[in-house]
Amino acid sequence: MKYYIVVLAAAIIVTLFSVAQGYCEPRWTEWNRHCYRYVDHKRKNWTLASADCTKLSPTDDGHLITIDSADENKFASEWWITMLKPLQGQWQYIWTGLNDIDEDGTFVWSDGSPVTYTNWGGTQTDNDNGDCVTMAVKRVSDKGQWKDIKSSEKIGYMCEYTCKDC
Predict the structure, then answer these.
(1) Partners of 31 in the beta sheet?
(2) Where is the secretion signal located (predicted)?
(3) What is the mean pLDDT of the chain?
């Protein structure tokens, strides 16, 4: 009988601790009070990917990833690379929320956040008249540099929402 009471008490404590600490929904990964999800099985253009992130999020603030620091870029690219292995030397791309759809050359995040950090690959930010920004990797050592491409391209994407209880 004591054994069952101890097990029950432990289960209650673990449950309370989990609720108090907060968590991300299944298939989402928590980092720095945000939850992230990589979607590749249904590649979409930027507009549909953005809408899908809203639908997939359990909160009302789901969106394509907003990267506001070198640390977040490092987390996102390294986490994403772990799901791509082996890379096989071919470029891989995912949509981010950064775009200049409304005004060419003026980049904004789809969630309305200010642009406080960038990680452009090379010196040009207007590749082939692209309006939407991707993160790109080719090798495990790549640092998730950004490239803008046409919004009609169908690629994977990374979604993000704020973890309310983390």
Answers:
(1) 34
(2) 1-22
(3) 85
CA distances from 88 to 22, 91, 163 (A): 37, 9, 34
Tell me the two tokens of residue 43: 């590649």
What are the Cα distances from residue 87, in Å, to 31, 96, 138? 24, 20, 6
Buried b (16+ CB within 10 A) or exposed e, 95-123: bbbbbbeeeeeebbbbbeeeeeeebebee
Give the integer Cα–Cα distance in Å for 97 and 46: 8
**Torsion, CA 51, CA 79, CA 114, CA 132, rounded to 10:** -50
Residues 6+ apart with CB under 8 A from 158: 36, 37, 38, 39, 64, 65, 76, 80, 94, 95, 96, 135
Q: Are 89 and 139 in contact (CB under 8 A)?
A: yes
pLDDT of residue 89: 80
String of DSSP letters for 59-72: STT-EE----SHHH
pLDDT of residue 15: 41
Would you state the pLDDT for residue 68?
A: 96
CA distance 77 to 134: 11
Report residue 44's pLDDT band, with 50, 70 and 90 as the boundaries.
very high
Burial class (CB in 10 A: 0-12, 13-18, 19+), 76: buried
